[in-house]
Design a protein that fits this description.
With 288 residues, the chain is an alpha/beta fold. Helices cover 38% and strands 13% of the residues. It contains eight helices and seven strands; from the N terminus they run βαβαβαβαβαβαααβ. Strands 3-2-1-4-5-6-7 form a seven-stranded parallel beta sheet, with helices on both faces. α1 links the parallel β1 (13-17) and β2. The radius of gyration is 19 Å and the shape is globular. The chain starts with 12 loop residues before the first strand and ends in a 32-residue tail after the last strand. Bound molecules: NADP nicotinamide-adenine-dinucleotide phosphate (NAP). NADP nicotinamide-adenine-dinucleotide phosphate binds next to α1.
Length: 288
């Protein structure tokens, strides 16, 4: 046996949500490289069609399923439609996710005490409620598979304190809890369930922060590897969790964060610039 064969998924049927761009599109392409037929979902049909083209260029079948996970019933419908189109599901990478969004479409970064309840609700609806609905709907399809793997795209924000993104971080922590519970509950049905926790990764979602400047400098100063990740650096870990390479791994949260969540207690000594968030968003520490 060649160990690289463990990363193959020839003939597998995969669903990747949030695959119109960013991490999700790269995951869909990687799963196609590994031999999967892939159903891809997002709201933006034109962008999904581009992902379909990228999968088909790799010689695999691709199906675009458009839908807004904020709408009731859509998450479940996408799982069922993907299974119907591909003849079943072996791999589900639930990657779609959102930050709270302002009216102009930009990310809304506010501490909890200044945010409005609808901002919280909109993030919980997409990141948590739709996750539960998708997992529930995917279950019978995965239970019928001989190589079922469910991967939830959580975040390092679910592991560490993430001020100004409390709703996002809470939903990502909830995904970690859900993945552990499902891993135990579904293990004897042959379904592995794991989570992935990327750190700061350059995508449309993080463009507001990754552009060179004080915010990017401040964020990367807290990353031991000292830089942003590229989406390709998240994809390998996703393929590991989806494929037989991780056949004895379930209930795990795989962290791909350049060391961000490793507590160094400041011992590494990397210089940390001052927070670019002005008071009252980041109030100064009270004098001791
Ligand atoms: N980038 C990072 O630094 C980072 C770090 C940790 C975790 N993550 C997680 O990784 C995942 C992918 O993030 P990304 O950075 O690749 O983000 P992105 O570039 O913003 O892509 C998000 C994807 O989700 C889809 N999506 C968003 N809201 C949706 C909705 N209401 N209904 C259906 N689809 C929706 C988007 O497609 P449409 O807009 O076309 O619907 C897009 O395909 C997310 O779960 C995110 O929380 C990202």
């Amino acid at each position: 046996m060649n160990v690289l064969d463990l990363f193959r998924l020839d003939g597998a049927r995969a669903l990747v949500t949030g695959a119109s761009r960013g991490i999700g599109r790269a995951v869909a392409e990687a799963l196609a490289d590994a031999g999967c037929d892939v159903a891809v979902t997002a709201r933006t049909r034109a962008a999904l069609d581009a992902t379909v083209g990228a999968v088909e260029d790799r010689g695999r079948k691709a199906v675009a399923l458009a839908g807004d996970l904020a709408e009731p019933g859509v998450a479940a419908g996408l799982a069922d439609a993907a299974a119907a189109a591909l003849g079943g599901l072996d791999v589900v990478v639930h990657n779609a996710g959102t930050l709270p969004t302002a009216e102009d479409g930009s990310p809304l970064l506010l501490p909890l005490q200044l945010a409005e309840q609808p901002d919280w609700d909109s993030v919980v609806t997409v990141n948590l409620n739709a996750t539960a609905a998708l997992c529930r709907a995917a279950h019978p399809h995965l239970a019928a598979s001989e190589r079922a793997s469910l991967v939830l795209m959580s975040s390092v924000a679910g592991l560490v304190g993430t001020p100004m993104m409390e709703a996002y971080a809470a939903t990502k922590a909830a995904q970690l809890s859900l993945s552990r519970s499902l891993a135990v509950g579904w293990a004897r049905q042959g379904i592995r369930v794991n989570a992935l926790c990327p750190g700061w990764t350059r995508t449309d979602m993080t463009e507001f922060a990754s552009t060179a400047g004080p915010l990017s400098d401040w964020l990367t100063s807290h990353v031991p590897l000292g830089r942003w990740a590229a989406v390709e650096e998240v994809v390998g870990a996703t393929l590991f969790l989806a494929s037989p390479a991780s056949s004895f791994v379930t209930g795990h949260a795989l962290v791909v964060d350049g060391g961000l969540s490793v507590p160094d207690g400041g011992l590494a000594g990397h210089p940390k610039p001052a927070s670019p968030f002005a008071p009252p968003l980041a109030p100064p520490l009270a004098p001791a």
